[in-house]
Amino acid sequence: FFASSCVLVAPSPSRSSVLAMDMGDEFENDGMEGETDSDDGMGGDFSAPEALPEGVEKEIITEADSANWKTPKKGDEVTVHYVGTLASDGSEFDSSRGRGTPFKFTLGRGQVIKGWDLGVATMKKGEVAKFTLAPEFAYGEQGSEPKIPGNATLVFEVELISWVSKDDLFGDEGVIKTLVKEGTGWKMPKIGDEVLLDFKELAADGSVIQERLECSYALGSDAFGPVAKAMDKLLQGMKKGEESQIKCAPEYAYGPERPEGVTITVILRELFETKDVSFKKDGSVMKKQVQEGEGWDTPKDCCKVKLQVSAATDGQAALAGFKAATLEFEAGNGEVCDALEYAVAEMKKGEKAVLTVKPAALAAEARLGLAGAVGEKLELTLALEDFEKAKDTWSMDEAEKLAWGTARKEMGSSLLKSGRLSMALQRYKKVIDAFSYTDNMQEENKEKAKALKLACELNKALVSLKLKDYVEAKAACNNVLKDDKTNAKALHRRAQSELGLKNFLECIDDCKKVIEQDAQNREARALLKEAMAAQKEEDKKAKGLFANMCKALGKGPIPAPGKSAPVGNFEDEEGDDDD
Fold first, then answer.
1. Where is pLDDT greater, at 261 or 9?
2. Contact of 102 with 29, CB cutoff 8 Å
3. Which of 131, 139, 224, 322 is an active site residue?
4. Comparing C-alpha atoms, which of 379, 352, 386, 351 is closest to residue 363?
5. How is the beta sheet containing 352-357 ordered, strand by strand?
6. pLDDT grade, residue 569 (50/70/90)?
7. Is 93 one of the catalytic residues?
8. Identified catalytic residue from 37, 76, 93, 176
9. Residue of 76, 94, 167, 301 with catalytic role
10. Residue 217 annotated in active site
């Protein structure tokens, strides 16, 4: 009978012997048949295991294969073979090998002695190790008679056969995830993303509650009803191709209707990453990737691009007049509408996507028959067939970089004149970023670079003012004034920014600085007059507010010494409206 007794179970204060637990029960598979083990189902811990404490000694007998570099984490179900002996005389007291049946337990949950929880967490699949455990990491003073005396040091030879990765998704044991098959890549969906998945939900008795194959689901949409919260949490940790199972307690499923909870199996077929590609990041141009592209490169300014636009709808019906076409153009030059410029700058070769544009006017593209596009929303189906890679600015020599910067500034000015404000602003920002560090340039080229950057900062301020982005305009002017404190354009545009921000005194100060340089500057004088009038109005409002505050002081009955005035008893309150 002793050979079938689980001596590994952690001692409990409520019982003096571990002989009451039958090992045969412990080895039951508990419905885990068919779960994938180490090759496909081990998420594992990617970090280095913590050092073992004094009292737990480990000696590796057989190294794991080099491909098996992961270790199990707390909550994972591990499968091992072991042989346990007493350090004092080498006598064997327990062995799973002798029974011919591996032993399973959940790591880090106190189901086994402390030394096992610590030691097995350092092992890799296929590894065989010898652990020598001091009494405090085994059965302590009480031991486990008759085979294990008190204060015994134990030696275990352990082989880690496999493990099934499990995670407590909410930290309350309400939803336990079991990784069945690992996915590929590194991307995981987030709230708002759309995915394509297989979904199967089982009741506690194994009957199917519902099953959906190749089902589209938007995270956060609550389309899965009572289990939506658990599904969203699960999916945010899954990768493409991954298969996982979750066991949901009633509070994460159907409540009292199904008191034993449910089990859900999910296969993530596709991840449709949704990204805001608009320049302002205001949600006006959203790109949903429906097919991943190749590599990491995306088209840069001046790249020759081949973009297929195969469909256009208002979100439901096809748009009349639309003409499918493959457009060839140079990125960043405004040769196509803003929406396509934004999208292509964040696409990879071979990528397919659906572009949602609000308002539709941002996708007004004549070559697609959409020159007069109007309406609240427009959806385009795109595929980036190819693009020619342009030279990176960091790989250019100084002369090439200056020529590139000059050309991009001129392109920005051309876009500005045609009213393509956001496109123009992008060009100026790219030049500013490219010349953010010039200290290592030759002196002659350094001065040219500084002049080019200054011009782009001034133009950036001008465009930002037109877009009513006064904070950005002010920042651009400040960048110029750091090196050129008397720059009249920077002072004037900063004064305009201050007016937009209602900083009237600062506006007045900058206007006076401009007029000191050019007394005949009509624009500065007009701006000064406007700012002074606005400040006068502000002063008047402040004076009235202060006067009303002073009126309220001292009103109401005067309380006797040591007593407070009654709340809300203001006899003269009605007369306050006279002024």
1. 261
2. no
3. 139
4. 379
5. 274-276, 285-291, 352-357, 378-387, 304-313, 325-330
6. very low
7. yes
8. 93
9. 94
10. no
**Structure tokens, 370:** 């959409």
Report the share of the chain in percent with pLDDT over 70: 86
369, two tokens: 């028959």
Q: Find the angle CA(463)-CA(330)-CA(337) to the nearest 5 degrees.
A: 55
Which listed residue (76, 82, 322, 508) is catalytic?
82
Among 37, 76, 105, 113, the one annotated catalytic: 113
pLDDT attached to residue 268: 97
82 is catalytic: yes
Q: CA 454 to CA 483: how far, in whole Å?
A: 9
The model's pTM:
0.65
Q: Which residues contact 470 (CB under 8 A, 6 or more apart)?
A: 464, 496, 497, 498, 500, 501
CA-nearest of 427, 426, 433, 422 to 393 is 433
Q: What does DSSP assign to residue 305?
A: E
- Say whether 94 is catalytic: yes
pLDDT tens by residue, 169-204: 998 989 999 999 999 988 899 998 999 999 999 999
DSSP 53: P
What gap in Å lies between CA 404 and CA 302, rounded to an integer? 10
At residue 22, the pLDDT reads 33
Q: Which of the following is catalytic: 103, 105, 137, 156?
A: 156
What angle in degrees, to the nearest 10, is found between the helix axes of 522-552 and 488-500? 30
